[in-house]
Amino acid sequence: MKKIFCLLNLLGMQEVLPAQSDSTASKGAVEKKVTEQKWDWIDIKGYTQLRYNELFETNPKLECEQCDKSWGTGVGLYFRRMRFSVDMKLLPRLTFTVQPDIAGLIEGGAAVQLRDLYFEYGFDKKKELRARLGQTRVPYGHENIQSTRNRIPLDRNDALNSAFINERDWGLFLYWTPERFQQRFEARARDGLKGTGDYGIVSLGVFQGQSTLRDLNRSKHVVARIAYPLDAGSQMLEFAVQGYWGRYTIAAEKKTPGVRTNATGTYPDRRVAVSTVLFPKPFGLQAEYNWGTGPEFTHATGKITAQPLWGGYVLANYRLPMGKMVLYPYARVQHFDGAKKHERDARHYIVKELEIGADWQISRYVELIGAFTLSNRKFEDFRLPDNNQKGSLARLQLQVGF
Question: What 8-state DSSP symbol labels residue 149?
Fold first, then answer.
């Protein structure tokens, strides 16, 4: 009978049994343990970002569609992000993740978008080799795979972030991370050093390449990344090289009538990037640069052709503990010369920008970021040829996680 009672306890069915001779305290402990067993297969977390971009704004025509759609739109205080991530352990080695995002109130209404939706399977107990299938971040660039929740600057750099919409695509990805490297990735997160998490020291992937569910050219992109997290005394470093290649087709709804393309509207889409990170202990330094080829609009000809692109950034930061709080002052300079293929007419950009700010981590769950941006952006398509905007603005963001 005792064995049957224990089995029913594990199944969460102890309430159907008659009262036992155990004390009330013992019964409460058993019920608590059973409750924990019921919920240890699911993990729910998320965060919100409340942002204001119009402080001391000098040029309302200065915009960055991919960075923050509220730039230059007259939108004041708004929710930049409101994300909820649900991780479910279906089997000991199989998990399922879904992450919806309630976007900001821009252009007449809020929109719910799907950020992550994938299954992940570990081929061994230590999960040194994993496969991920679904919509997820493409392993290209340090800042691209770093969660917005952990990144210090308000927006990602233009040069590498121009590769993909929301840094994600649909595909199949493999990650290999020996146990000792898993511990290094975990240490960067545990110590509050703004790491990326475990995307493998070697990662490979085959993905759609169109940043959409529609496959417009019946071909796939391929990505490869090699990263090496290194501990040198008290310092933590990370080096990575990555690249992807494929063919990208300009969607009809993303092309202005009158813009000419080649016969198929399909162009080579390939890049290579290098990343190096010295984590802030207390001084940090981060730099990335990429080169490639992709579709690009030229206003002189009114045509989209394959053109070279290049650009990157350097970020310096400092970790300053203040009791239970932490302050991360930072400065970032970036430049980019190339196109954003997923924007209208494969819009051409020349970006030169300086951002100075600080991330005040008030607690584990609350952060306040203030930044001053001095920007010179040339972004041109068929409707706005030779469009060069300069200006500055101060920006504020309150982030609350759970």
Answer: T
